[in-house]
Amino acid sequence: MARDHLSLEEIEWLAESSRHTRPAAQTEEARLHLDRCEFCQGLVKMYEELKAPGEERGGPNCAAESDWWYVATGLQPESRAAELLEHSTRCDACALLLRQATEDFTDEVTEQEITQISALPSAQKEWQQSLAQRLSATESGRSAPVTPVGRWMRDLADCVSRQSRNVFRYAWAYAAAAIVLLAAGAWLLQMRRDSPIDQLIANAYTEQRPFEMRIAGAAYGPVRQERAGERSAFAEPASLLRAKYVIKERLAGRPDDEAMLAASGRVELLEGHYDEAIRTFGRLLDAHPDSPPLLIDLATAYFQRAEVVDRAVDYGQSIELFGRVLAKKPDDTLALFNRAIALERMYAYNEAIRDWEHYLRVDPGGNWGTEAQRRLSELREKVKAHR
Predict the structure, then answer these.
(1) Which residues does 262 contact at the CB level (< 8 Å), separation at least 6?
(2) What pLDDT does 133 receive?
(3) Is residue 33 a part of any domain in this protein?
(4) Are 208 and 196 in contact (CB under 8 A)?
(5) What is the pLDDT of residue 26?
(6) How far apart are CA 232 and CA 292, in angstroms?
(7) Residue 192, class by beta-carbon neighbours within 10 Å (0-12 exposed, 13-18 middle, 19+ buried)?
(8) CA dist., res. 215 & res. 204, Å (int)
(9) 121 and 233 belong to one structural domain
(10) pTM for this one?
(11) Residue 255: CATH number of its domain
(12) What is the pLDDT of residue 18?
């Protein structure tokens, strides 16, 4: 069956064929289609021109490549980010840099985000067609010489209005890449701006869960305990390295940023620097003495230090801090899960059993529920054996 047009991935690797290795059959099929289809030939040509090394980037208003990295990670001040995003809608080369930076620094889009993006006005065909026509009119009205890319975009904008919906999807993706990034990429960056560090740290915990206790926002992962000196800096999860980079950059500009200080404490916790984590969370708790997240983080740091130095007073401090959280939020799953482990370390088996039973009433499903049930069963067997 004849295909309509090349996919976005095929357009990219045909334009960069020297850097990609593909199965011969797949390559041959795509090239045969390209030989017959002027429409896809134009897409590949435009992509090649955008990627051409040493090409003029449009003028003195173009930002450095590092500026787009700051936009993608949320480090760029909001006013400057807005200015750059607006510029990317008028500059092909900068739109491509923004796209590359966003792919490098933005985590995989969730199903919820895809649903929300699809509801944006910019995701609707009518909005895109209208904007394509405006772009075409703007391009034709400029007094400056029109670049090959600009001419092709103008022709493509005319073509878009005559194509079927399938053709439109592929054509628009490259012809107006800057607009798509502005509408969807900028929205994602803004939505993730307030909590990307927490998510990076949570991802690092899940990838190499270094201790039994849970941390906020982390998915389930098996415990990977390592002996002292075993961990290599090169073995650190990429998400943890990215988190440390962003934290360092932000604290350099705003050393009193409490969100970044809390994040730095969680990084210290994951890296086994428990004394430093205790100091960090302790200072933050002086300003926010009833904050459940800070209480849980500090309690976890005390517990981990107790595990290393075998100091009972730290176990007791950990249990007391978890108790303060549960006094305000009796069904807090993190506090219940973590306190049950701490109570078992202190041989308070009956109290630990009550916490596990409470936890399973609140959150019985998923992998965390399975681990809680296993721990409860093992603890009951231990109590039975003692009796």
Answers:
(1) 280, 281, 284, 293, 294, 297
(2) 58
(3) no
(4) no
(5) 63
(6) 33
(7) middle
(8) 11
(9) no
(10) 0.55
(11) 1.25.40.10
(12) 47
340 with 210, same domain: the answer is yes
Which positions of the chain have pLDDT values less than 70? 1-5, 8-9, 16-26, 46-60, 73-76, 78, 100, 102-195, 225-235
**203 vs 217: CA distance, rounded Å:** 9
201 lies in the same domain as 285: yes
- How many residues are given for the chain? 387
Q: Which of 151, 93, 8, 25 is nearest to 16 (CA)?
A: 8
Are residues 208 and 113 located together in one domain of the fold? no
Clarify whether residues 231 and 326 are in a common domain: yes
CA distance 18 to 48: 12
Q: How many domains does the chain have?
A: 2
So what's the pLDDT on residue 129?
58
Examine the domain organization and report whether 238 and 180 are in the same domain: no
Residue 297 C-beta-side C-alpha neighbours within 13 Å: 32
Instruction: State the pLDDT at residue 132.
Output: 54
Q: What is the pLDDT of residue 277?
A: 97
C-alpha distances in Å from residue 257, one per residue of 197, 251, 252, 261, 262: 13, 7, 10, 6, 9
Which pLDDT value is given to residue 17?
Answer: 62
Taking the C-alpha atoms of residue 128 and residue 134, their distance in angstroms, rounded to an integer, is: 10
Domain of residue 209 covers 196-386
Task: Write out the two tokens for 70.
Answer: 């700051």
